[in-house]
Amino acid sequence: MEDKEWFGEWFDSPYYHILYKHRDYEEAEHFIDQLIAYFRPAADDKILDLACGKGRHSIYLNSRGLDVVGLDLSPQSIEHARRFANERLHFEVHDMRKVYKEQYFDYIFNLFTSFGYFETEAENQDAICAAAKALKSNGKLLIDFLNPYKVVHQLVPEEVKLIEGIEFHITKHLSKDNYIVKDIRFTDNGKAFHFQERVKAIRRERFLEYFRLAGLELVETFGDYELNPYEREQSDRMIFVLHNKPELATC
């Protein structure tokens, strides 16, 4: 993994976890409850939380009686998550562009916009293909992504957040190559910092092409964490439910 990839540096920084410490855990758990009710996984099904961060979703899935593996690129996040590991909850450092275990999982969840970070279309395709190859035949993949149409139209160009005595100055814009770019600048202990997040504003049609090449069949598209139908102009999220059909894959 090259140092120049922003997510490898930023996600492993303690400041990332300070900035996002107020994320809504109740909303996240409610969403997972909705997914469990929708999919009805069996107790012996294997579930992969792909790009799990510090493991909050993996830990909650496991608390609901499920067998879970959490994977993430950040060693710091995985080190934290492993404090909660047990015989049915495991965490590993792993790059989602590579297959972890072939034909092993019944379900793979990629939650809360943990996709779209890569520089090339080929890398995006590699990540989708790797997920498909890790699924059993007829296994199910869920990708929870931002709704690019709504986010781009409602982009807030500037904001300031004061958290733990640190004043984060945040600017956002849409780049010429169609990335939603967030620049994060602040000073701590007399030292200036600048981090950047870059998430590709991937449209639905492009996702459908990724899925087709990976042999993934679209079942439903939801627009929010209540699993209401997706509406391009109105929905907060773009949540894909897919069945794995490896015989259709070309990657």
- Briefly note the CATH topology name of the largest domain: Rossmann fold
Q: Measured on Cα atoms, how large is the radius of gyration?
A: 18 Å
User: Beta fraction of the residues?
Assistant: 25-35%
Helical percent range? 25-40%
- Termini, distance in Å? 22 Å
Q: How would you spell out the order of helices and strands?
A: HHHEHEHEEHEHEEEEHEE
- Which CATH-level-2 architecture of the largest domain? 3-Layer(aba) Sandwich
The description of the largest β-sheet is: 7 strands, mixed
Account of the 3D structure:
The structure is a single chain. The protein is of the alpha/beta class and 251 residues long. It folds into 2 domains: 6-146 and 202-248, Rossmann fold (3-Layer(aba) Sandwich), CATH 3.40.50; 151-198. Helices cover 29% and strands 33% of the residues. The protein has 8 helices and 11 strands. The chain has helices at 6-10, 14-19, 25-39, 56-63, 75-81, 121-134, 148-153, 204-214; strands at residues 46-50, 67-72, 89-93, 105-110, 135-146, 158-163, 166-174, 179-188, 191-200, 216-222, 237-244. The strands form 2 sheets. It has a 7-stranded mixed sheet with strand order 3-2-1-4-5-11-10, with helices on both faces. A 4-stranded antiparallel sheet has the order 6-7-8-9. Helix 3 crosses helix 4 (56-63) and helix 6 (121-134) packs across helix 8. The longest helix is centred in the first third of the chain and has 15 residues, at 25-39.
Brief overview:
The chain has 251 residues and is of the alpha/beta class. Helix content is 29%, strand content 33%.
